[in-house]
Amino acid sequence: MSQTVLGGDRAATPSGTAEVPAIRLRNLVKRFGETAAVDGVDLDIRQGEFFSMLGPSGSGKTTVLRLIAGFDLPTSGTIELEGRDVSGMAPFQRDVNTVFQDYALFPHMSLLDNVAYGLRVRGMAKQERRERAVEALDRVQLGKFVTRRPAQLSGGQRQRVALARALVVEPKVLLLDEPLGALDLKLRQQMQLELKELQRSLGITFIFVTHDQEEALTMSDRIGVFNNGKIAQTGTAHEIYRRPTGPFVANFVGTSNLFGADAAGRLYGRGGQFVVRPERLAIGWDGATPSDDGVTAVRGTVASVVYVGHATQVHVALEGGPAVVVLVGADLPGADDDLLGRSVAVSWADRDAVWLPDAA
Amino acid sequence: MRLSRSAKSVLGVLTALVLLFIYGPLLLVVVNSFNADRTFGWPPKGFTLEWWGRAFESEGVRQALMASLGVAVVSTAVSLVLGTLLSLALQRYKFFGRDVVNLLVILPIALPGIVTGIALNNMFTTILGVSLSMWTVIIAHATFCMVTVFNNVIARLRRMNGGLEEASFDLGAGVFTTFRLVTFPQLRSALLAGGLLAFALSFDEIIVTTFTIGAGETTLPIWILQNLFRPNQAPVVNVVAVVLILVSIVPIWLAQRLSADSVGVGAGRDGAGRAAKATAG
């Protein structure tokens, strides 16, 4: 071990391996005809990180994943894998593996052959690759199904096989393209936990593409939010949720009440825009505005009431705008019909108002 | 759609009549190959295996059969390679003139055999200066046999999950390994179906063959044509015809079972049309 540390100041790794990012994207651009699917992405993904690319469909996140895997070649820009430029390399020359959205299991092979495939094409002896494949299938609780075909499995089981098949070749980076999209809610939540646990125990870098903001928030060390082929914001779940740097991120990750420049000027006497999360707003049903320090209150009219199970969303049209959503956890003081049209006061602590940078 | 009882019975009778009209004459050929009466009087006078024995002993029949099998096997092999490469190119890549190439590839099966035959004959003898032989027949057959392979393979490729090949590349396999371990197994039954149809087309082809075969050589259909009007050969002709029917029908039946889903309507209909034309000739 000490040998490795001493060898650490070789020219190739001047500042130690730990600081070379697993993936480094520099000014990555991918055009399909006239449209730029990826439009200048710069990103460093650290080793051993669970990184999510979050964005609506068409935001370029899947294209970035395909560029990293090598299925598409970038129009311009570079992709580095652990400090090595792989931009022009074929997929089979890159030390990254993919779990596909539709799993892409080989239908004519048993689970064992599916999982052993990567080892087989690397020329590993039959006995050894079978042992490793069985081991990998055991790890995803499918050890008893080695002779089955993919068609005989449920969606969740196929997902696990795809995972085992990609992990058995020990990639430096694992790419996951909305792998939980086809599963039902319960199974998805279970797989989220399992994936996170697996990633933690293996220490492999995971790059996880999803359009589900809740999924990204629960699983990731860091999140990159994509919009129109660009990264709108990169940060931890906490940073992204609490300190969105623009209206797009504020609205895409969770619900946000956006207050425009006029409201900002009226309430705080300054320019710019700010957002307040629905759960940070309080509602005064009697219409009295609290006068505590550091609390801002505005009168409004209840426009609609939506019960969402764990809480109720109350939509209130504020005087002078905008219309906001307030998340109320407690019981409401009356039937929905009585509340509609009622004059109420909406208040929030000033520290919960998140000011967006002007440029955004 | 619901049909009344009378409509059902009318349609049933019509269907039976049509099928009888198609298969009655064929059945007659089969019966006559065992008919003891040399002039084929009806009803048959008795059962005999004499004609079958004579056919097996005939040197001419045996040579013609071997020639037909050889031509069919080689032109099927050529069609499998070219048809697969073509369908891969046309399915996977977008290029200028792709639709035109697609049409040009399918066209030969619809062209009248006599036109193909004369055109190829001119090409071989006057322009290329090649003497006609079994090889010119093989090349001529491959021009339209290729179409059945092409149709089957391209239909399969369209339905195949393109992600499978990406998954293979992703796991470290190169282009050829991926074809061998992933693409080819997916295409296997389509290739078999297309190949069997191609074999059947080639085996009983006569028009194009007539124009491209070397002097003194015969395939089975040509042998029949040459011996049809020789009275003492007539019983043996019946036997050869039965062999021809069997060798043509079995592959088509197998191909249909193999790929009820992947043999395009076009392939089935064109194949049958070409076969019908060949039989009529």
Structure, described:
- The complex is a heterodimer of chains A (360) and B (281).
- With 360 residues, chain A is α+β, with helices and mostly antiparallel strands.
- In chain A, 28% of the residues lie in helices and 30% in strands.
- Chain A has eleven helices and 18 strands.
- Chain A has a six-stranded mixed sheet, with helices on both faces. A five-stranded antiparallel sheet of chain A has the order 13-17-14-15-16, with no helix packed on it.
- In chain A, helix 3 (111-121) packs across helix 4 (126-139), helix 3 packs parallel to helix 5 (155-167) and helix 4 (126-139) crosses helix 5 (155-167).
- The longest helix of chain A has 18 residues, at 185-202.
- Chain A is elongated, with a radius of gyration of 25 Å.
- Chain B is mostly helical.
- Chain B has one domain (58-280): MetI-like fold (Orthogonal Bundle), CATH 1.10.3720.10.
- The longest helix of chain B has 34 residues, at 59-92.
- Chain B is globular and about 70 Å long.
- The model of chain B is unreliable at 261-281 (pLDDT under 50).
- At the A-B interface, strand 6 and helix 3 of A face helix 7 and helix 8 of B.
> What's the main sheet of chain A like?
6 strands, mixed
- DSSP summary, beta strand count of chain A: 18
State the end-to-end CA separation of chain B: 40 Å
In the CATH hierarchy, what is the superfamily of chain B?
Answer: MetI-like
Give, in order, the helices and strands of chain A: HEEEHEEEHHHEHEHEEHHEHEEEEEHEE
Alpha-beta content class of chain A: alpha+beta
Portion of residues within helices of chain A: 25-40%
Strand order, largest beta sheet of chain A: 6-7-8-3-9-10
Shape of chain B: globular
| Radius of gyration of chain A (Å) | 25 Å
Rg calc of chain B? 22 Å
Biggest protein-protein contact in the assembly:
A-B, 24 and 17 residues
Distance between the termini of chain A: 48 Å
Shape of chain A: elongated
Tally of individual helices of chain A: 11
Uncertain regions spanning at least 5 consecutive residues of chain A: 1-16
Residue windows where pLDDT falls under 50 for at least 5 positions of chain B: 261-281
